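We modelled the chain as a single entity of 256 amino acids. Its sequence is:
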Amino acid sequence: MSNSRCFLKNTVLSGSFLLAFLLGACGYRYYTGTLRPLPELQQQENIAVSDDGTVTFIRNRLEVGVRPQTDEELNRLYAPYSTGGLDAVNPYTFGDWKDPETQSTPHRFTIFQLKVKNYAYPKILIDPSQAWIISENGRKYQPLGPLQFAEYFRPYATAYAGIEYGQFQERKDIFSRSRYKAEPIFSGQETQGFLVFPLIHADVQKLSLRIEKVAIRFDFRNEPVETLDLEYLFERNIGRLYPGQQEPVLAPSTNL
């Protein structure tokens, strides 16, 4: 077995043993449901909520929409890369691998699709480094850039050659193609990409996705003179999973 697979397998097995210990000690493990938008009346001004879970800021003919992605959707999107257990190359999920203790597949990241339509301004600019997830208990999460993404997967590539390094490069290529990039969107253009955040903690039930300093007007030096701060509100079910049964979902928390 290669060093890379040994590293991943040992990491996974260590996590499984720890989970087994916790299950034996307390008899349950945490579960988290799929993120869904809060009702439109609870969102900020100029926000529309669609049936597919997209939350869109609309101003004149500018639309900036976000939608949480599920692992199932990401596995379908990258189907050729989502099989093979621990060898699955899909950078956003664990593919078809299942934890031998729980017979479930853990989540790897928290991912939103950001989709922009600009039919209102000569040019706009959204910098993904100005996006944040803020949980109701005050935790902050920022999207992964290329460097942070590479550092996450680098331990799986133990040498600059061979199968593991090729998989490392494939993951980087997929991330590079699919992440949202800080590029101008000119009048009449549409674009989209992923905001890839670290995995949100299991005790977070409500969160705010904020995209700050959206530049919509520029001066003659190409410096922003008018910007927008956007906010989108989401929630999910959280609770404890006991052997053979599920505890009722924890009571909804207060506003963010």
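As a brief sanity check on the tokenised model: DSSP finds four helices and 15 strands in the chain. The chain has one domain: 3-246.
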